[in-house]
Amino acid sequence: MFKALVLNQVEGKTTAAVEELELNALPAEDVLIKVDYSSLNYKDGLAVTGKGKIIRNFPMVPGIDLVGTVEESADSRYNKGDKVVLTGWGVGENYWGGYAEYARLKGDWLVPLPEGMDPVKTMQIGTAGLTAMLCVMALEEGGVTPESGPIIVSGAAGGVGSVAVSILAGLGYNVTAITGRPETESYLRALGASEIVSREEMAEPARPLEKQRWAGAVDTVGDTILARILAETDYNGVVTACGLAASFKLPSTVMPFILRNVRLQGVDSVMCPFERRQEAWKRLQTQLPETSVGEIAQLISLQDVPEYAEKITNGQVKGRVVIDLNN
Ligand code: NDP
């Protein structure tokens, strides 16, 4: 028997409860994993509360991330005792995920844990941190360097934002953080932000082109903030867009693209190919400053997940939340 957070649908509403299940309740896949830690992402919040239409088939074990140890494997690439990390691929959405002591998954979805990488740190990073690194890689591929000028990060006190601020500052970029929570200023400065701007100021609708301020951006929120960032981006700048914490809308114009050569680069972590994931995880191991990792994350138990799911969908979680499946 093992414990899992199980979502059901009762009279059109999503319910979440910790249940005891038998191992044979797990879906038939290649690799059985003893889950050590999972994490809470914005998408998990939407799934567990039912506020977003993330899950279509119930019962479902949510949790889009996990790190654990292989128990049994029908995939020749993995053996009992191997440490593996999983993010995305629709796990925790279409397939049973990480909010359980055991999971059975496809070998294709797994990434071997980089040598020396601590399992807790892996989930302190999780999908949010992986996405932050994919944004940083996209900025670099667009030619943005620390010498290019300041980088702006929106939703900075959230999961993706916190890790992005920390990685960029560690790489020598000058980082400006956008937050709607002034009380997080000292936290964001500790992660390496040199300037803080208010969400309110950045959410003001922009003219098609504004004064150039940013060499690059990591946007996690969309809507008028992303539109303003685009209007304020330097000639040849790169804006990476990975989130919709404000909304999925983008009330912008083509002017930044056709007059300033600005690049808007989408970033998806869910279907990101294996080689790119592996590169991102390797870089996270060395390029996310150790001091930041502890600052960013808090540890909770499986029972606490519904409460924190509600909080993350209300923008009340600072940094990252790790779920301990060992007790
Ligand atoms: P969090 O909830 O941890 O962070 C989101 C942050 O956005 C909040 O902390 C808050 O930051 C800010 N925010 C919240 N509501 C609003 C609002 N109405 N207007 C403006 N800002 C707001 O979520 P994550 O960091 O886990 O995810 C961020 C986004 O990225 C989500 O939309 C998520 O779905 C997306 N995402 C996409 C991925 C991909 O593969 N493309 C992968 C992972 C996440 P503050 O208080 O500092 O203002």
Summary tags:
Quinone Oxidoreductase, Chain A, domain 1; alpha/beta; six-stranded parallel β-sheet; binds NADPH dihydro-nicotinamide-adenine-dinucleotide phosphate; 327 residues; Rossmann fold
Task: Give the structure's gist in a few sentences.
This protein is α/β, with parallel strands linked by helices and 327 residues long. The protein is built from ten helices and 15 strands.
Mind sketching the topology for me?
Layout: E1 2-10, E2 13-21, E3 31-40, H1 42-49, E4 65-73, E5 83-87, E6 102-105, E7 111-112, H2 119-141, E8 151-153, H3 159-170, E9 175-179, H4 185-191, E10 193-198, H5 199-203, E11 214-219, H6 223-232, E12 233-241, H7 255-260, E13 263-266, H8 274-287, H9 290-296, E14 297-301, H10 305-313, E15 320-324
Parallel strand pairs: 8-9, 8-11, 9-10, 11-12, 12-13, 14-15
Antiparallel strand pairs: 1-2, 3-4, 3-6, 3-15, 4-5, 5-7
The protein binds NADPH dihydro-nicotinamide-adenine-dinucleotide phosphate (NDP).
NADPH dihydro-nicotinamide-adenine-dinucleotide phosphate is lined by residues 41-43, 127-128, 131, 155-161, 179-181, 184, 199, 220-221, 225, 242-246, 267-270, 312, 315, 317.
Q: How many discrete structural domains?
A: 2
* SSE ordering: EEEHEEEEHEHEHEHEHEHEHHEHE
Which kinds of small molecule does this entry bind, naming each only once? NADPH dihydro-nicotinamide-adenine-dinucleotide phosphate
CA-based shape: globular
CATH class of the largest domain: Alpha Beta
Low-confidence stretches: none
Strand fraction band? 25-35%
Instruction: Tell me the major beta sheet.
Output: 7 strands, mixed
The CATH superfamily of the largest domain is Medium-chain alcohol dehydrogenases, catalytic domain
Q: How many β-strand stretches? A: 15
Radius of gyration using CA atoms only: 20 Å
- Number of helices, counting only DSSP H or I runs of 4 residues or more: 10
What's the architecture of the largest domain in CATH terms?
Answer: Alpha-Beta Complex
CATH topology annotation of the largest domain: Quinone Oxidoreductase, Chain A, domain 1
Would you tell me the structural class of the helices and strands?
A: alpha/beta
Question: Mean pLDDT, rounded to whole units?
Answer: 96
Distance from N terminus to C terminus (CA atoms, Å) equals 14 Å
Which bin fits the share of residues in helices? 25-40%
